[in-house]
Each structure stands twice: as C-alpha cells, then as structure tokens.
Amino acid sequence: RSLFDEPLGIAVQGLSPRQQVTLRASLRDEAGELFEAHARYQAAEDGELDVARCPALPGGSFSGLEPMGLLWALQPRKAFWRLVKKDVQTPFLLRLEVLEGHGDDSGRLLAQAQHERAFLRDGVRRVPVRDGRIRATLFLPPGNGPFPGVIDLYGAGGGLPEYRACLLANYGFAVLALAFYGYEDLPKEMKEINLEYFEEAVNYMLQHNQVKGPGIGLLGFSKGGDLCISMASFLKGITATAVINGSVANVGAVVRYKDVTIPPLGVNPKRIKVSKSGIGDIIDALNNPLEGADRQSFIPLEKAECRFLFIVGQDDHNWKSEFFATEGSKRLQAHGKEKPEIICYPGAGHYIEPPFFPMCAASMHLLVGMPVIWGGEPKAHCEAQIDAWQQIQAFFHRHLKG
Ligand SMILES: CCCCCCCCCCCCCCCC(=O)SCCNC(=O)CCNC(=O)[C@H](O)C(C)(C)COP(=O)(O)OP(=O)(O)OC[C@H]1O[C@@H](n2cnc3c(N)ncnc32)[C@H](O)[C@@H]1OP(=O)(O)O
Fold first, then answer.
1. Are residues 307 and 183 in the same domain?
2. For the segment 335-368, what is each residue's pLDDT rounded down to a tens digit?
3. Residue ending a domain, choose from 118, 142, 172
4. 110 and 136, same domain (yes or no)
5. Which CATH number do you get for residue 316?
6. How far does Cα 322 stand from its chain's mean position?
C-alpha cells in the first residue's frame, strides 16, 4: 500500500538469466474503465529485474530507464477518458503482471501482484462541510494543529473533485476542496460567479480552530485558477495564491463582488480548430485581454495582498497559460507589487495533476461541448507533475507559516 503521489519500487525475482518478459500494469477506475501500460524487459544475469535499474526495451508503452513508467504511461481503453478519483476513502487497486516473452499477444502469466494506491494518509480526517451556502470537504492532518490552510479549486466541469485536496492534506495542510457549481444545491451551470460565496469559504477557514492564520492559501487549476486570482484581488485574508494553468482574465462567466463586475473574456468559436476526427483545439478561442473591450476582463490582481505562484504547462492547449502568467507578472510589477514566481514546464499540457496521474491527452470539455486536446507529452508531463507538486508545497510552507 502506498500513497498515489508517492514513487513505487517494482522488481521481479526468480527469472532465468537474461529472460525476456513483459511487465503489465493495470487499474480500473470507479466507473470500471480500464487503464493499462506495459513494457518489455530482459532480466539480469541473476534472474532479477528492477525497473529502477533496468531500462525498458522498445515496443511497449515506454522505453528506457523509467522507474515509474508503468504508472505514468497508464492509458484508458475508453477514448477521451481521464483518471479521476471520486471516493478518496478507497484506494485504486494497481495490478502488476509478469508475462513471458515480448510477444504482442500476452505471453504466459509468470507472476502477478496487487498494490493499493491510497489517497488518505493514516490519520488524515475527511470532513464534509455544509456551512451556510458552502458545499465542500475539509481535509485535516492528524493532531490538533493549527495547520496552514488552503482552499483547493478545480475548473469547469462541476462536481467536487477532492483528490488533490486530500493528497495535499497528507503533507500537513488543512485543505478545503470547494465546489462552486454543478453540485448538490449549487447553481447547475457556471452562469454567474458571486465572490461572496467564496468569501464565505475564506472566512470559514480563517475562523476554523485548526487553521493557522493570519492568512490562507489558494490553489486553483484552470478556471479554478482565475477564480483564485479574483478571490485574491477582492477578498481579505489570502496570503498565497498558486495557479496551475490558469488565466489572469476572467473566463467563462461574469464575476461579481459587491458593486464590481468583471465580464468574461470574449471568445471567437471560429478560432476553434476541429480535427477530422472531431477533436477541438481551443488554444486560440479566447480573445486577448490586452485589447479593446476585453481589457475589462483582465482581473485587477494588483489589488491582491498575497504572493503568487504560476505553474505553466508550456504545451497547454486549453489556453495560453504562459502568456497569462507573463502578463500577470507585468501588471503586478507595473503596480509596484512583488514579482510572482512563474515555473514553466516544457512538454506539459493543461491537466497538471498530482504526481503519477497519467496525462489526459484529450477529453470532453464541458464548457465547449466537444472533446478537446489538452496538450502535453506523457513523460515530460509526468516530470512536470512531480516537480510542480513539490514547488506548490514549498510555496505554501514558505508563505503560510504565520
Ligand atoms: C462551440 C462554442 C464554444 C464556445 C465556448 C468556447 C470556450 C473556449 C474558451 C476556453 C474556456 C475554458 C474555460 C474553462 C477552463 C477549464 O476549466 S478546462 C476544465 C478543467 N477541468 C477541471 O478542472 C475538472 C473539473 N471537474 C470535473 O471534471 C468533474 O468534477 C469530474 C472530476 C469529472 C467529476 O464530476 P461529476 O459531476 O461527479 O462527474 P459526472 O457527473 O460523472 O460526469 C459529468 C461529465 O464529466 C465528464 N466526465 C466525468 N468523469 C470523467 C472522466 N473520468 N474522464 C473524462 N470525462 C469525465 C463526462 O463528460 C460527464 O458527462 P456524461 O458523460 O456523464 O454526460
């Protein structure tokens, strides 16, 4: 049993010297969809095979020395499907098989093992939160704290993805996974965003006896990223904001706070490129927030009293994340604010998730209404996920120590 975001050691013993075998990894998600990866190996003289020391040979899901290849190369049988964990209280069951030979059809099964990839570290508490309008789940590390607090926001798609919040809580943070539409009695669609809802969540955390003040952190991905920037710009009590492939312009729905209204950035569907197989590329769909009326959508992040970290996948095809981070940095500095940290990852796409989530190349975009490519190259994307996870934790530890 190990945590999903921890590296794994995989070794086989008792093979014949230099025996050729194929290792296959597989898991079924909660919808029963199968994810698989396989690689071809040759045992050492002593009949041992340790994937941390033995390179995978060509012809499998990956090749070369890839200790975690069997995990980051997992791919779904079902097209446009992404690995998500809906119930963080149960592990994924990873199945490992050793098959004879390198044939394309599976050789004789020589050995197999099952390994649990869990999300909740022992002692981490999962607390559903239905406080006022807030629909969320709070994850608390073991002990009495108080702990540095973070609010975790995903993007367009609705629901309440808890898995990143839960994995972050394993490292000593009190993390609130917050839903904001398409969940229980929250608005069904993302039509209008009122920051007062998010203000309730910030105050809930600041008043919580196990959350250490004076300020909390925000972690936002994609649409959740620009929401975090709007929160940081207008709400009090936010000390650190980490944005993963977010936008510095408000996107997708109007944002309101008291007498302030930020219109969504304009979109030109004609700039959506659709492949012959009907997969969209929306990287150019949004207008430029530096031009004309679209300047109203640029979030006034210079009003924020927090430090910023921008995590950027340089092959992001959802939108121009690096451009957004750079323009956000220019705007902050033009107003005499601290330069934000910007960390760019070549070859990483839009869905930068916690470590060892396999890269999703394309899936249904619930705002666009068609499957879109997200960008990224699996190995580079995996390396980006591992580094970004460390950077995000270090950023919050640095700025939330109270
Ligand atoms: C043409 C004119 C356009 C004009 C307009 C253009 C706009 C062009 C500008 C860009 C504008 C971008 C602005 C937003 C930028 C982001 O935010 S990109 C999206 C980033 N994604 C996220 O942050 C993830 C958000 N959350 C989620 O995806 C959901 O919480 C989860 C994790 C899928 C679960 O939600 P849930 O409601 O419990 O899921 P569920 O009800 O089972 O499924 C809902 C739908 O999600 C999808 N889904 C569910 N599970 C999965 C899965 N494992 N794998 C894949 N899909 C899944 C399915 O489509 C499903 O629909 P059905 O097939 O059931 O009909």
1. yes
2. 999 999 999 999 999 999 999 999 999 999 988 9
3. 118
4. no
5. 3.40.50.1820
6. 17
> Which of the residues 316, 329, 381, 399 is marked catalytic?
316
**What distance in angstroms lies between residue 365's CA and the mean position of ligand 1's atoms?**
5
Ligand 1 centroid from CA 366, angstroms: 4
Pocket probe mutation, ligand 1, options 74, 78, 153, 154, max atoms within 8 Å of Cβ: 154
The domain tally of the chain equals: 2
Question: Annotated catalytic residue: which of 38, 208, 317, 350?
Answer: 350
Per-residue pLDDT tens for 93-109? 999 999 999 988 879 99
Nearest CA to ligand 1 atom 15: 223
Report pLDDT digits (tens) over 164-182. 999 999 999 999 999 999 9
Ligand 1 cavity residues, CB under 6 Å: 81-82, 84, 154-159, 161, 182, 221-224, 251-252, 267, 269, 282, 285-286, 318-319, 363-364, 366-369
63 with 211, same domain?
A: no
Let me know if 222 is a catalytic residue. yes
Residues 84 and 140 in one domain: no
Q: Are residues 288 and 362 in the same domain?
A: yes
Q: Mean pLDDT for the chain?
A: 97
pTM metric for this prediction = 0.97
Domain finish residue from 86, 118, 150:
118
Co-location of 85 and 167 in the same domain: no
Q: Whose CA is nearest to atom 36 of ligand 1?
A: 159
Nearest atom (ligand 1) to Cα of 83 = 53
Instruction: Find out whether 96 and 113 touch, Cβ atoms under 8 Å.
Output: yes
* 77 and 131 inside one domain: no
Provide mean pLDDT across the span 63-77: 98
Clarify whether 316 is annotated catalytic: yes
Tell me the CA–centroid distance for residue 179 and ligand 1, in Å.
Answer: 13
Residue numbers of the domain that contains 328: 125-399
Please report the ipTM that was assigned to this predicted complex.
0.94
Same domain, 108 and 130: no
